[in-house]
Specification:
Layout: H1 2-19, H2 32-40, H3 46-57, E1 60-62, H4 64-67, E2 76-77, E3 81-93, H5 97-103, H6 107-116, H7 123-137, E4 141-149, H8 159-167, E5 170-179, H9 190-199, H10 205-217, E6 228-235, E7 239-246, H11 256-267, H12 274-282, E8 286-288, E9 291-298, E10 306-313, H13 320-334, E11 341-346, E12 357-358, H14 359-367, E13 383-385, E14 391-393, E15 412-413, E16 417-418, H15 422-430, E17 471-472, E18 482-483, E19 486-491, E20 503-507, H16 509-512, E21 525-530
Parallel strand pairs: 3-4, 10-11
Antiparallel strand pairs: 1-5, 2-3, 3-21, 4-6, 5-6, 5-8, 7-9, 9-10, 11-19, 12-13, 13-14, 15-16, 17-18, 20-21
């Protein structure tokens, strides 16, 4: 039975490969030779630099679903009528592609995938997972962060195009980074193999399979390698006025700063420490930088007939102050919009200067997924590192990086003092569009998904304390290392009432943990936006103005 399931799971991707051949508009792709040149030459020739700039400022857009007659679902709620459901998910490159695809489409086949991967979920957990798949299936707009195209680690898939084809959606894809690191390209496997040797200290099948996987998957393939990594907007509504706008301010130079790590390592290679080797695992030499992807969805039932979706992924390897500078730049770009706005993405609101990562997770992010992968099987993987190159033992995780931050919107965090991330939310709360409108920060318990109120509770699920985390380091860290990084913010239709205001924000953690090792290091989130002033059942909810 298991072998049949394995064949079924393997066949999913092949079906999507065929169906993902869609008409799209975009910039010319870089050749393999040009990618190597972009790594080797700090200042590339002008024609190559212009080609790179064109790629980083031109979105790839396909409205093939709309051309084929696919229509939005426009789900209907007994509580407030017809609505738009928006979902956001950092899918960690698309490493678990089949799981992501089935999470939006098919609970039965997702269950089969769980079995194939050896899930030990209880009957109650499986019921909850099926419910959360139902929630995602009703999303008409999906914002995805960390989306690969033409990378070894994700089997050279065009992840955005293939997911859009599977969902019956249109899509816009913006390139954030062009990955030119020799390790990522498969040109240098030494550090990967050495790290696996260290991580799996004892000989065994898992260690041998991991090394075999590295040699097979990380083999250089000039014909299929494109090295693209970015953000996507998927929508059952036709996408119009799509723009890809890199931030003028970049809090981290992913080319020069990361390449310097390799230079330092080369100088000390003969006597390189374990820490230096781990820095090479976390290193990512890239061209490009953080950006925002905008697209309008148009339908006569939407308020004003038009809604702008803004998708972004703010810098993690920088300070909260610098992230706030990127936020302010983004807000300035959208200031003159005079209709509803959905702002969604991984904001990296971790309260510190870089996100920690386990060594086992770092290996997976380099070489992709496999049925045999098990984070708990890595005997020496209980250390955490940051892209800045610092390494932390789990035993010291309660201090500094590997801590639980319940509410990054609060001005101070218990035992840790002032929270520099809070000013991010102050700026967003105080922001005014040119016509005086602003983002909805309300958090009424009656309009939340779990009856918990508080700031932003209607758009982002709150927990017993603070917000439900969307990013976790993994089982090794226990209750520590949990963060609320991913957000949905909404400018509603009006500044009084609840038309197109966010309702029932959810974090779908059980679904994300439905397979061993998780689908992604981030959990998906959703929010519901009613087309009309909602006639809430039972008269329990009162209409409260947004004015403050």
């Amino acid at each position: 039975m298991k072998s049949r399931m394995t064949l079924c799971a393997a066949g999913l991707s092949q079906l999507v490969f065929v169906s993902a051949i869609v008409a799209q508009q975009g910039a010319p792709l870089l050749t393999y030779r040009e990618l190597i040149q972009l790594y080797k030459q700090d200042v590339p020739p002008r024609p190559l630099q212009l080609k790179l700039n064109h790629l980083l400022t031109t979105p790839f857009v396909s409205n093939q679903a709309a051309a084929a007659g696919r229509l939005p679902l426009k789900p209907v709620s007994t509580e407030f009528g017809k609505f738009l459901r928006v979902a956001q998910w950092n899918i960690e490159r698309g490493l678990e592609f089949d799981a992501v695809m089935l999470a939006f489409t098919d609970s039965r086949r997702f269950t089969a995938l769980m079995e194939n991967k050896g899930s030990k979920a209880s009957a109650e957990e499986r019921t909850r997972i099926a419910e959360q798949i139902g929630i995602l299936k009703a999303a008409d707009v999906v914002v995805l962060n960390e989306v690969d195209w033409g990378m070894n680690r994700t089997l050279f898939r065009n992840v955005a195009a293939q997911l859009a084809s599977a969902f019956g959606m249109n899509y816009a894809y913006g390139v954030e980074f062009v990955e030119v690191d020799p390790i990522t390209m498969g040109l240098d496997q030494r550090i990967l193999i050495r790290e696996v040797e260290q991580t799996y200290a004892e000989p065994g099948a898992t260690k041998a399979q991991t090394i075999a996987h590295i040699k097979r998957v990380m083999r250089p393939d000039p014909a299929r390698y494109h090295g693209l990594h970015g953000t996507a907007i998927l929508s059952r509504y036709r996408l119009e006025n799509v723009q890809l706008l890199p931030f003028k301010f970049q809090g981290h130079d992913w080319y020069l700063d990361e390449k310097k790590k390799e230079s330092d390592f080369a100088k000390l290679q003969g006597k390189a420490s374990d820490t230096l080797f781990k820095e090479q695992m976390i290193r990512q030499v890239r061209r490009g930088g953080r950006m925002m992807l905008l697209a309008d969805i148009v339908d006569r039932e939407l308020p004003s007939g038009r809604v702008t979706v803004v998708a972004t992924h703010l810098e993690d390897v920088t300070s909260p102050k610098n992230r706030r500078q990127q936020l302010d730049e983004m807000l300035d770009r959208i200031r003159n919009i005079n209709h509803p706005v959905i702002l969604a993405g991984d904001m990296n609101t971790s309260t510190h200067d870089a996100m920690p990562i386990s060594m086992s997770r770092a290996i997976k992010q380099r070489i992709g997924s496999g049925k045999w992968w098990a984070e708990e099987g890595a005997t020496s993987a209980l250390k955490y590192g940051t892209p800045a190159g610092w390494i932390y033992d789990a035993s010291f995780g309660a201090i500094g990086f590997a801590r639980k931050v319940d509410d990054p919107t609060e001005h101070s965090i218990l035992l840790l003092g002032e929270n520099a991330e809070a000013k991010f939310f102050v700026d967003l709360d105080k922001f005014r569009f040119a016509d005086g409108a602003y983002f909805d920060f309300r958090g009424e318990s009656e309009r939340s998904s779990n009856g918990r109120g508080g700031k932003l509770a209607d758009s982002n699920q709150r927990g017993e304390k603070g917000f439900a985390p969307t990013d976790e380091l993994g089982k090794a860290s226990g209750p520590l290392g949990q963060y609320k990084l991913d957000w949905i913010f909404v400018r509603p239709a009006a500044q009084s009432g609840y038309r197109f205001a966010p309702h029932f924000g959810r974090t779908l953690k059980e679904l994300n943990f439905g397979i061993p090792g998780r689908i992604s290091d981030h959990s998906p989130i959703t929010a519901d936006l009613p087309f009309r002033e909602p006639p809430m059942a039972g008269g329990k909810l009162r209409t409260i103005s947004l004015a403050r």
